[in-house]
Amino acid sequence: MPTIDPRDIELGLAPGSAIASIARDLVRRSRAPDAGHAVLQFDSDGSGAIAAFRVLDATSGRAEWEEVAAQIAAEARTRPPLHVARGARGLSITIDVTSEMRTASGARTDLGTLDKIAGAINDPIGTATRTPPQRVVVARLVDATYF
Question: Which residues, including other chains, have CB under 8 Å from residue 60's CB and lie 6 or more apart?
């Protein structure tokens, strides 16, 4: 059975890396928690089309993460199929997704009172800005395995 080099996964060069980009875009517009984390798994069939998905872990809002995973799978099916190596029956990929609210200066909005005070002392201009916090989503491929 062919294997995927862990370094290729780390660099985003492994088959399925495009799914992380789809996840990042869809989570930004989703009902998933603004501040949350999930681990999503997608399995392709032998032709590289996404055949199944599941939420492996979610810090909160599991139903919303399930909804997002379904949207990611549907969007992935409209794109070119994943590359499945000869001799493999499919590809399983795991995506790690984190969503946070951040201020214009990049500070997290879920900080405690003391952390907010320290932030105001260290960055008084950043806390005075009227720009509302924005949702920042990071999605990365953490595993890709042929089966």
Answer: 33, 36
Of the candidates 95, 105, 92, which has an alpha carbon nearest to the alpha carbon of residue 137? 95
Query: What are phi and psi for residue 140, nearest 5 degrees?
Result: -140, 150
DSSP structural state of residue 89:
S
Give the chain's largest Cα–Cα span.
60
Over the stretch 13-68, which tens digit does the pLDDT of each residue have? 999 999 999 999 999 999 999 999 999 999 999 999 999 999 999 999 999 999 99
d(C-alpha 62, C-alpha 71), whole Å: 14
CA distance 41 to 137: 17
Secondary structure (DSSP) of 19-75: HHHHHHHHHHTSSS-SSEEEEEEEEE-TTS-EEEEEEEEESS-HHHHHHHHHHHHHH
